[in-house]
Amino acid sequence: MSADTSSSTPCIVFIGGGNMCEAILSGLLKTGHSPSLVRVSEPFEQRQEYLRATYGVSVYAGNNDAVTGTEGASPPADVVVLAVKPQVVGQVVRGIASTLRKTRPLVVSIVAGVAIKDFARWIRGTPDGNDDSQATSAGVPIVRLMPNTPALVGEGAAGMYADADVSAAQRAQTEYVVRNIAKEYFWVGTEGGVDDVCSVSGSGPAYFFLVIEAMEQKAVELGLDRRVARRLAAQTALGAAKMVLASPEDEDVASLRQKVTSPNGTTHAAVQQMIKDGVPQGIAAGMQACRDRCVSLSDEFGQL
Fold first, then answer.
1. Where's the Pyrroline-5-carboxylate reductase dimerisation domain (predicted)?
2. Which of 74, 75, 184, 263 sits CB 3.0–4.6 Å from 157 for a disulfide?
3. Does pLDDT of 220 surpass 90?
4. Domains 12-196 and 203-249 share a fold
5. E strands along the chain, which residues?
């Protein structure tokens, strides 16, 4: 079994070398994690060459080779991060199932909409996908991680859920990975909590892009240069967020809004019009639609 101590630096393997892999990888190396303790599996040769040249890590074309490493030269994987598209994750996991059962690393999935029960089922199955219905447990610890795209600029937020096989040391290993991409990260008590996180921070950057987009466009219509409008709107969003994070936890956001909203002033006029037009209700409805889609995706991808 792979090492399971938080005091040692884990060997981390990424299955999938896309943007989120790169965000985590870059963060790990910036904080001193050795490139010799990172391996990446990536099918596209151009991307393989880029990752090797940029980060000095071992990159494999085969998933099983990445998990096991070069015999006698690489340590076994302590953590395997699944960073592939949901549409192919079933095939990918079945393909490395026997290796995972043998080496038993911590598996961290950043694949949206795929439940732990399905990962367990795929891991129990044979590599060609014939599940053993008599098996009762995958025997491989699994964490679902919901990061978000601001991780790419070091401003991520994330939620995590661990199955019963995940030890305290492996939770620490998960946090070791996550803190390189997220400034705010939390464990949730149920797997459904991952869908809740998705509706807030997982999909949330798009909500704010929509607001910034609308503010930019209106500012241009009012006469501002587009570059000026964009940067003013973006910096205002960033500043407001920092004020929320810097405020005491027992101070609600409504009180911050009220502090900057003078009665019958300009801000009051804007906020009242937005409330009248149903902006808060629209945001809440959008978040609910996001969560509902998370649940339906889990049902869809579970059939793969």
1. 194-295
2. 184
3. yes
4. no
5. 12-15, 38-41, 58-60, 79-82, 106-109, 142-146, 156-162, 182-187
For residue 123, how far is the Cα from the chain centroid? 21
Tens of pLDDT, residue by residue over 39-51, are 999 999 999 999 9
Is 18 within any annotated ligand binding site?
yes
Does the annotation place 20 within a ligand binding site?
yes
The reported pLDDT for the residue numbered 4 is: 40
Q: What is the CATH number of domain 203-249?
A: 1.10.3730.10
Query: What is the separation, in whole angstroms, between the first and last Cα of the chain?
Result: 29
CATH class of 12-196: alpha beta
Tokens of 263: 């009665």
pLDDT the model gives residue 73: 64
Q: What are phi and psi of 65, to 5 degrees?
A: -65, -35
* Cβ partners under 8 Å of residue 108, min gap 6: 79, 80, 81, 82, 142, 143, 145, 174, 177
Has 218 been labeled as part of a binding site? no
Residue listed under structure tokens 């303790």: 37
The answer to whether 86 is annotated as binding is yes
Nearest Cα neighbor of 2 from 49, 37, 41, 54 is 37
Residue 265 marked ligand-binding: no
Query: In which band, very low, low, confident or very high, does the pLDDT at 84 lie, cut at 50, 70 and 90?
Result: very high
**DSSP, residue by residue, 33-85:** --GGGEEEE-S-HHHHHHHHHHH--EEESSHHHHHH-STTTSPPPSEEEE-S-
Q: How far is CA 6 from each of CA 16, 23, 123, 175, 249, rounded to the nearest angstrom?
A: 24, 22, 25, 10, 30
For the chain, the domains span 12-196, 203-249
- H or E element at residue 214: helix 204-222
Q: Rounded distance, CA 262 to CA 137, Å? A: 59
Cβ partners under 8 Å of residue 209, min gap 6:
none
